[in-house]
Amino acid sequence: MSAAIAPQITALARRARAASFTLAVTSTTAKNAALDKLAALIDASTFELLEANQRDLLSPEGQALSPAARDRLELNEARLRKLADSVRAVAALPDPVGELLEEATRPNGLVLRRVRVPIGVIGIVFEARPNVTIDCAVLCLKSGNAAILRGGKECFHTNTALAALITQALHESGLPGDAVQLIPTTDRAALTALLKLDTLIHCIIPRGGEGLIRFVAENSTIPVIKHYKGVCFVYVDQAADLAMAEKIIVNAKTSRPGVCNAAEQLLVHTAVAEKFLPAAAKALIAAARVELRCDERSAAILTREKIAHLPAGPADYTAEFLANILAVRVVDSLDQAIALINRDSSGHTESIVTADEQAAAKFQAGVDSAAVMWNASTRFNDGFEFGLGAEIGISTDRLHARGPMGLSELCSYKWLVTGSGQVRT
Amino acid sequence: MSAAIAPQITALARRARAASFTLAVTSTTAKNAALDKLAALIDASTFELLEANQRDLLSPEGQALSPAARDRLELNEARLRKLADSVRAVAALPDPVGELLEEATRPNGLVLRRVRVPIGVIGIVFEARPNVTIDCAVLCLKSGNAAILRGGKECFHTNTALAALITQALHESGLPGDAVQLIPTTDRAALTALLKLDTLIHCIIPRGGEGLIRFVAENSTIPVIKHYKGVCFVYVDQAADLAMAEKIIVNAKTSRPGVCNAAEQLLVHTAVAEKFLPAAAKALIAAARVELRCDERSAAILTREKIAHLPAGPADYTAEFLANILAVRVVDSLDQAIALINRDSSGHTESIVTADEQAAAKFQAGVDSAAVMWNASTRFNDGFEFGLGAEIGISTDRLHARGPMGLSELCSYKWLVTGSGQVRT
Fold it and tell me: CB-based contact (8 Å) between B371 and chain A?
């Protein structure tokens, strides 16, 4: 590790911790004023932001990105307007801080209140997406947390320009400027140093690909909330409405194949496979030329019907394709479907299609995933669709938050106890 | 790492994971039957348990323990009866699994339910206390989690005897015997291997001294919930009822000085220091010969009154004494008290004594600790006192659980979504 960087990152984290104490007792009005100011600054800084973004796009790192990644990095006037609007939308959400979660009076007269409070200092580690920079800053600020942002090198100039606007908005609203800080270097040593500051930073949220998340989880002594891959399954039960099942698998697979709640695998009960698979395969191919990677039994059915498909390799059954590719297997029972899902899925989102209420209940109880759907597309596992108003990601962890993480999930709680001189005997 | 141990631990964790799927859908009745069976087996196995315990007490490791640690290790008939009763008490608690935490119908007709479910597989790492072995096994079982227990070497024979009873109770109740497993060696390599099994184990809870907790936090790739030290403060405000303050500090310091919610430091507002400190010091000395380690201002007052005290060293202001020792400082304001606490306490439990409601509100909002008391002893931060019925420890983390961790805090949740064919547009 570069000797010069670690003390600089420690100093930055100390300033964040100091700011967190102020933020924790800052009023909703003051936080919203800072957010509205930021939205106005984004609107007024189109030229500067697009110029910084151009520097990133033209940099060697920016040029080396895939077309899809370049598209995510690129800003334009419409996207900036959308970004400013997203800031205003968070300002309009209810403040989670101070919410009374539980209240009880004990036999000895002590009154207990469990109250929602910010976590403290949150470190967010992400890749080259300017909207993530703003999203994370804004969600942390609204939930009263100080944020330390560490973005990808491909986005460094854009992030620096956005961070300058955030700092200006904080200062002009009377909030501590250190409430949101961008790590001023993309040197990996800075990240490694950051991940060890467990007395100053309370939570690390990595957002990005599997490699980034693994690196963070393996190197952090700070608790990490992971937003890991989605290997989502749709199971078509023997009692399924097959037209509904077809609509759901087409939507789950093809409506946005690059996201974590897209389906990657189809399980079909043997009793309906002959009837369902040919129709579903045709619909998937018609919708988005989906490549079907089939086990022997599903392949046999599609071969008979002369429908294009490929044999699945063992890795396909646990793969997150993020593309118009779907693994397909035939199963003999609901129990087998549940067992395969619990073994091979990533625990993100699974769906059963069935008209049999008992089968659905068994599936929802037995499948150990963050969201278990019945007769609905996996694509609904999302903070906005769940009514959280916003999300910082979809947790595949089991501690603290599971599934979509909104403002409330960016909070902790504390116990406030009111007595009249009670002592313990 | 010993090459032979890691695969053995991995196999054990795989069996735990398999058992966790069964446990997650096991009825309350079946879980309670296993607990009642275990209580009966403990009652019926006094001879075997005391014999195993004697082996530990007479072993070189047992002989090397401090008298206090030996006392915690030692079992006798009365303690075994208490142990069996504690198992029955957990059986009598409500089952947290399946509790509906939230329900909502979205505009598109999807019905969302957030339902409490077990975390999955929990690893518990602890030292030489047989009651912890039973506590942890029983709380995990009741909350539907598979448990992997790793106890200290000084307690190995007692733990092995207790684990045999647990396995017998599970088998005789038709539950998977792998639901609770004891690591069959005290080799540290086994612990190191355990802490890396993040695909099989979902949470690690270390219970013990600072060294153990640090080792676990630094070596685990599995999320850890820490139950860290308690450097608890009592602040006597200028508007305090001084008789109440005296009673509270005496109770907080001396009722059980070896536990984490005992007070370690007294802050006194300068306006009441002259009057309060001499009386409080005399009461603390009278109650338990408390050694007072004073800053210059408090020392000056006690010197004038000829009351025994020592000068505090810098380390005393952040020390967990776990003994009849108390650091004492005089502060100029409520703000200064809050700032000192946020800098020097361990974020466990603090208490303000004051008749001024506004001062109390400011203290409770500003102090960033798991429990913030007003006119009550710090000793009340405890799962039983908070009405949780049981506790596996008191978390000083901010994620997932903060403060006492009972059965509900040993759970995660999942989202169950019921549709009628909805797809996302």
Answer: yes
